[in-house]
Write a structure and sequence with these properties.
Length: about 170
């Protein structure tokens, strides 16, 4: 009888070990997929920060934005050598980096507040870009009917430069 009892216990041991192995494989696969999915964002952020530090003379960085309506722009917020808060707008090409003092224009929160006044269902993104040669905030959001909308505000004064609705 003792041998029968031990034989019954072994299958439970293997079942538990198999379940743990399946869970481990799922966790490793999930971690790999998350890493693979976020790799382009991390690479673009590292690229933009490198260009901003070299061309824009930033000494430190604090935030990263990415916009891609007509042209891809990466924006890095940080501090320059004079310890001033600045934005460095980096085109995908890495050429013609635009550096702006944060105090010279609208803050991201001010722009977002103007968009929230339109009563959107959800704000998707808000990032700096260059629009028709002028620094601008580009915001994408979903209106109350769930349609995609874009609005572009001039950085210096908040003037609406472009509005695309109900896409």
């Amino acid at each position: 009888m003792r041998q029968q009892y031990q034989r019954r216990q072994r299958p439970h041991h293997w079942v538990l070990l198999s379940i743990l192995l399946v869970i481990l494989v799922i966790l490793i696969t999930g971690a790999y997929m998350v890493n693979k999915a976020t790799k382009p964002l991390s690479q673009n952020q590292a690229y933009a920060e490198s260009v901003a530090k070299k061309s824009g003379h930033l000494t430190s960085t604090s935030q990263f934005y990415w916009t891609n309506l007509d042209t891809t722009y990466y924006t890095v917020a940080g501090k320059n050598k004079a310890n001033q808060d600045v934005y460095a707008i980096v085109p995908k090409t890495g050429k013609d980096v635009t550096v702006l003092k944060k105090s010279a224009g609208l803050s991201r929160n001010t722009v977002l507040q103007q968009v929230w006044n339109k009563n959107p269902k959800k704000v998707l993104s808000a990032a700096m870009c260059v629009f028709n040669g002028k620094p601008a905030w580009q915001v994408s959001y979903l209106n109350q009917s769930g349609k995609l909308c874009y609005i572009t505000f001039q950085y210096s004064n908040g003037k609406v430069l472009q509005q695309i609705s109900n896409i």
